[in-house]
Write a structure and sequence with these properties.
Shape: elongated
Number of strands: 7
Helix content: 40-55%
Oligomer: single chain
Radius of gyration: 18 Å
Mean pLDDT: 90
Strand order of the largest sheet: 3-4-2-1-5-6-7
Distance between the termini: 50 Å
Structural class: alpha/beta
Order of helices and strands: HEHHEEEHEHEEH
Strand content: 15-25%
């Protein structure tokens, strides 16, 4: 079927094990988002450096210390990491993620991350998206003659 072939081309014919790095407000919101699992992305591990969080679990997913990443990534075959840490920690976290063998990063931190060949990093900048929307609204208002 065509839909099956499209899913295969997009890599959605299988379930991907992903990691969330940073389990603050944004990381928790992403963990609770049911759309991830429905679209083939299973949160296999959470990483943080807060001693009060490490060793516990959220939504049935174990929270590991970031230093455990290399062995957990290998053990759980994690290919994608979502970085939700503050900007000052993001570059170090990205290096840790890359050195652990993760090949794709979704970066919510408000900084640019350079990745080596073979590793893809997709930035998510909410303020940039909001600026695009405000530009669209301003353009529409200017065309209508309203302000």
């Amino acid at each position: 079927m065509l839909t099956d072939e499209l899913r295969k081309i997009l890599g959605l014919h299988r379930q991907w094990a992903i990691a969330i790095v940073g389990i603050g407000n944004l990381g928790t919101a992403l963990l609770r988002y049911k759309g991830l699992n429905e679209k083939g992305f299973r949160v296999a591990a959470i990483f943080d450096d807060d001693p009060e969080k490490v060793g516990s679990s959220r939504s049935g997913v174990q929270i590991y210390h970031i230093d455990e990443m290399p062995e957990i990534v290998k053990e759980k075959n994690i290919q994608i990491a979502i970085i939700t840490v503050p900007a000052p920690a993001a570059r170090h976290v990205a290096e840790t993620v890359i050195n652990a063998g993760v090949r794709a990063i979704l970066n919510f931190a408000p900084i640019s991350i350079k990745c080596p060949d073979g590793v893809t990093c997709q930035p998510v900048d909410i303020t940039s998206e909001l600026k695009l929307l405000s530009h669209h609204l301003s353009s529409t208002e200017n065309q209508d003659g309203s302000s």
